[in-house]
Backbone:
């Protein structure tokens, strides 16, 4: 029913904020309108039409405003107007604000859904931003970062695949520094491959195995910015027989005492007493080099193997860093580096059909570049970072799409409001501003909550992803620039479209209830739902695939039995006069006494822990040196094969062997089938008693193992040689499952009795092997989190849409109920349309997910085949969730009282 | 349709003349002008009311408010003595322009173009 008084009141209210009109003017105009309406009505026109005509004839307010203003400006009201201007602007803002708040209050559910969806999307985007910044920011804290480079060598053998390595012999760095003027200084870095045992002689139970002990040149601390909290940086590492500790390591060995000047006993590649010469701050998480103990390079170079001048270019275990002059051109330098390389190794290369060149890798590139092999220094990956950045953007996109979709769907609800306002002449501009304002408020609320959420969740993410996100992001100006731009873009994008859609409605059509469902808009809305669900399903399918692959890798048949095997690192620090082999034998005998220990073996490395040698020179001894292939080496004893369930397909292996052959003779080794094939034998039997050469050492093949996996399923099986050792660094014990803690306690007791001063630690081979998949596990978890998030946001959107469709069709549902439709039938009818959309999404998402995940799986040597079932699962899950979401509204609508809905007007 | 210039020029004369007939209010003025010109001139609120205020400020008009049923009271305007004088000036100027133009538009008989 048209209410003239009410409408006039609304109209006045609107005009009240037009600054050109004083209240008296408004009275005048109102009077004019009333007079005109009176005239028209008495001529027979209905009141509503008369009113609209009167308003229309008043003309565009802009023009009226101009006319009024012309008069007023001339009257020196300028000064007054300035204040009224300010007052006007303020009251305008508060007005928009009030209207916005009121509209949120009226529809609390909708407002909540919108803010929630945006917040989730923004929060995840924020966290991912931080993660990306973290990964990209590795090593940026070094003062000299721009001038520091790591030397890498790209080698191509026999026109095979190029291999890039960052490991060199010890002579490379000094040669480069000497022969290339652009090099200011160099620093080499070398792990202690024995994981040395370090003990505080004053307190014997403070003995620990250090996995992060490295040897470094003195220049290391000058080139890199690892600050010392005690000791002199210029002096540190310059003196042999000294070492540096991290703060936590110092606390570990000395408690609250001052560590400077104290002596520690080191048993590793170099053994002996070392004096603590300095303490450095714990290495931050965003440094690619992680270490707790630093030892002087001079000590390492004394070690046999490195003292031979020939080995300077061959034993490639040193990571080499150089600092270049300020203005050098890197390609120039690389060229000079390669010249130096050729000068020293050109002859060899020619012999072995090898080509190689050197590169200078910028320090900041080191962490993420996973193509370069650097032994123990494990990189992150550009790919993973890109991948997650992509996921973050997709999640944000879904959230934004949600917002737009819901807002336009809401148009039906607000159409009445819009209609009334337009009837009373509200300008389009005002409406647009109003809606933009609301959009801005929602965005602001979402942004604030997102920031808070990201802050709260940071420790969880750190845990989950094994990273260390810091609050540093907040202080980088670049971040704020991007963030604010994104915020403005979001507000405008998400606010403009609905604003224009809503403000373009024709008032009469709206009041009659016809507007808002143009087919173009329907298509757009549905298209957006499909988009959201497609993204979610891709993520879901991806998650299933990732988990399946992970499961497959962890449970595949490795050809080696890893269950119930306890491993103990052998004693390192032996008392005076004890022979290693003797020690091992004694220990083994004592341990055999424990009833639950079924078998004992020793080896130089363990499955899942990599090998001892990595070489590219595996070949038959008689073959041309240029035909060498990649091969690896570790050493085992006679019981090893039996303990781990390895099968020999040829020869007797180490059966009956108790000692290695004398030094003049070549060593003995068991090869695996891959090695046998790689060096050119046709059958395992053919290889028996033949000689092969690996890294310059000759071995006689005494057996061939059936292939098994020593490492994770990421990489294909290597060609491996297993040499003989009676006293390897690791003891493996096959134990019974009953009363495991007792068994472990017994082992510990014996160990400690026989070898005091050695830290006792143990692990289970299968658990340690599984550790290789830790990163994959993390990846899978993160992936799942985002898949769930994406679907949650998509469902929020669906929920909102469903509720408004329910509203729109209230009458229809009421009528149907009266005509006898069942609740179930109504639910089905109602859900049908939405489920169709989800089905379309499944169809689109499946091939998309298939191709994307194929690329990811390509990285694994052992991988699953993507089967139909996966997409079925993902699709059904999405469908199920969608059904649940929609059915709530459907059931609510179906159960509502038809009388109420039919009376709704 | 009458040109804008003419409508603008005739605003003041019309208002002053209509008000000379007796006190009246905005809406009535607009209706009067519409009927006088047979619908060829239709003033809008933006045209009329600011001018009424301006004239009142300059002292040519004065206003009084009277209740008029529902809504705000009506503002009735009437001419002040100054207004009457202004009207005379307008009339004089308009008529002299008119006389000049009439000389061109109604020449001596026998000289009309083919």
Residues:
């Amino acid at each position: 029913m048209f209410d003239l008084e009410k409408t006039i009141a609304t109209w006045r209210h609107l005009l009240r904020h037009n600054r050109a009109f004083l209240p008296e003017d408004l009275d005048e105009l109102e009077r004019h309108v009333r007079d005109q309406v009176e005239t028209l009505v008495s001529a027979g026109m209905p009141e509503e039409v008369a009113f609209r005509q009167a308003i229309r004839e008043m003309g565009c307010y802009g023009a009226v405003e101009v006319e009024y203003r012309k008069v007023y400006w001339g009257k020196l009201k300028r000064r007054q107007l300035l204040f009224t201007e300010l007052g006007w602007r303020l009251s305008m803002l508060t007005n928009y604000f009030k209207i916005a708040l009121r509209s949120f209050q009226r529809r609390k559910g909708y407002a909540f859904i919108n803010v929630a969806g945006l917040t989730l999307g923004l929060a995840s985007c924020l966290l991912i931003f931080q993660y990306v910044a973290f990964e990209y920011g590795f090593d940026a804290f070094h003062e000299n970062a721009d001038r520091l480079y790591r030397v890498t060598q790209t080698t191509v053998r026999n026109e095979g695949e190029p291999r890039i390595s960052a490991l060199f012999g010890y002579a490379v760095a000094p040669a480069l520094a000497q022969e290339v003027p652009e090099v200011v200084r160099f620093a080499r870095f070398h792990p202690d491959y024995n994981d040395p045992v370090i003990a505080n002689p004053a307190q014997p139970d403070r003995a620990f195995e250090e996995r992060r002990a490295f040897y470094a040149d003195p220049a290391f601390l000058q080139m890199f910015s690892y600050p010392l909290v005690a000791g002199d940086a210029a002096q540190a590492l310059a003196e042999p027989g000294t070492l540096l500790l991290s703060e936590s390591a110092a606390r570990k060995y000395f408690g609250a005492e001052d560590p400077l000047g104290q002596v520690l006993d080191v048993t590793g590649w170099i053994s002996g007493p070392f004096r603590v010469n300095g303490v450095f701050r714990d290495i931050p998480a965003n440094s690619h080099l992680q270490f707790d103990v630093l030892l002087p390079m001079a000590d390492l170079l004394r070690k046999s193997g490195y003292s031979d001048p020939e080995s300077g270019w061959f034993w490639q275990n040193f990571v080499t860093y150089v600092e270049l002059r300020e203005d050098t051109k890197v390609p120039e330098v690389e060229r000079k580096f390669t010249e130096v390389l050729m000068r020293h190794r050109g002859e060899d290369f020619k012999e072995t059909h090898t080509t190689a060149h050197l590169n200078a890798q910028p320090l900041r590139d080191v962490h993420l570049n996973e193509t370069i092999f650097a032994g123990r220094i494990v990189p992150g990956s550009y790919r993973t970072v890109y991948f997650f950045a992509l996921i973050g953007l997709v999640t944000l996109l879904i959230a934004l799409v949600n917002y737009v979709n819901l807002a336009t769907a809401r148009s039906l609800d607000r159409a009445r409001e819009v209609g009334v306002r337009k009837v009373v002449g509200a300008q389009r501009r005002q409406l647009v501003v109003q809606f933009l304002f609301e959009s801005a408020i929602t965005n602001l609320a979402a942004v604030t909550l997102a920031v808070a959420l990201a802050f709260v969740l940071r420790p969880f993410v750190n845990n989950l992803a094994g990273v260390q996100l810091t609050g540093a992001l907040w202080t980088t100006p670049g971040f704020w620039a991007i963030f604010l731009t994104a915020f403005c873009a979001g507000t405008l994008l998400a606010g403009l479209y609905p604003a224009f859609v809503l403000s373009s409605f024709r008032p009469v059509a709206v009041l009659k209830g016809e507007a808002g469902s143009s087919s173009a808009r329907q298509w757009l809305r549905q298209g957006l739902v499909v988009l959201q669900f497609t993204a979610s399903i891709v993520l879901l399918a991806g998650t299933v695939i990732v988990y399946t692959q992970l499961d497959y890798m962890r449970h595949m048949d490795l050809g080696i039995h890893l269950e119930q095997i306890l491993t103990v690192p052998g004693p390192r620090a032996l008392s005076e006069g004890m022979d290693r082999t003797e020690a091992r034998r004694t220990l083994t005998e004592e341990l055999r006494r424990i009833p639950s220990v079924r078998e004992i073996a020793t080896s130089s490395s363990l499955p899942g822990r990599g090998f001892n040698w990595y070489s590219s020179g595996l070949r038959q001894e008689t073959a041309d040196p240029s035909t060498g292939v990649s091969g690896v080496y570790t050493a085992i004893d006679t019981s090893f094969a039996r303990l781990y369930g390895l099968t020999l397909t040829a020869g007797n292996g180490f059966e009956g062997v108790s000692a290695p052959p004398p030094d003049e003779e070549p060593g003995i080794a068991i090869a695996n089938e891959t090695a046998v094939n790689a060096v050119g034998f046709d059958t395992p039997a053919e290889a028996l008693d033949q000689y092969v050469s690996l890294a310059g050492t000759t071995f006689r093949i005494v057996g061939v193992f059936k292939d098994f996996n020593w490492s994770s399923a990421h990489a294909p099986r290597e060609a491996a040689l297993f040499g003989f050792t009676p006293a390897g660094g690791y003891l493996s014990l096959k134990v019974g499952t009953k009363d495991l803690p007792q068994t472990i306690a017994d082992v510990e007791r014996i160990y400690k009795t026989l070898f005091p001063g050695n830290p006792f630690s143990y692990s289970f081979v299968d658990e340690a092997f599984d550790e290789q998949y830790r990163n994959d596990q993390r990846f899978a978890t993160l992936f799942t989190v985002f898949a769930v998030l994406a679907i949650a946001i998509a469902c929020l959107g669906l929920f909102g849409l469903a509720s408004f469709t329910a509203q729109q069709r209230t009458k229809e549902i009421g009528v149907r109920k009266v005509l006898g439709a069942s609740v179930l039938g109504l639910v089905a009818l109602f859900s049908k349309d939405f489920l169709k959309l989800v089905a379309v999404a499944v169809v689109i998402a499946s091939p998309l997910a298939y191709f994307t995940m194929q690329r990811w799986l390509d990285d694994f040597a052992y991988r699953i085949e993507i089967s139909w079932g996966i997409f079925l699962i993902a699709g059904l899950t999405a469908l199920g969730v969608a059904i649940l979401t929609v059915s709530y509204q459907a059931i609510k609508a179906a159960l509502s009282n038809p009388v109420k809905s039919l009376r709704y007007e | 349709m009458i040109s804008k210039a003419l409508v603008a020029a005739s605003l003041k004369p019309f208002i002053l003349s209509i008000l000379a007939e007796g006190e009246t209010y905005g809406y009535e003025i607009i209706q009067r002008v519409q009927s006088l010109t047979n619908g060829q001139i239709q003033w809008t609120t933006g045209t009329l009311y600011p001018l009424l205020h301006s004239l009142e400020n300059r002292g040519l008009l004065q206003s009084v408010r009277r209740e008029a049923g529902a809504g705000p009271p009506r503002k009735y305007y009437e001419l002040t003595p100054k207004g009457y004088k202004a009207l005379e000036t307008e009339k004089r100027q308009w008529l002299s322009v008119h006389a000049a133009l009439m000389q061109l538009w109604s020449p001596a008989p026998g000289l009309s173009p083919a």
In short: Chain A has four domains: 4-75, 145-366, 382-554+774-903, 565-771.
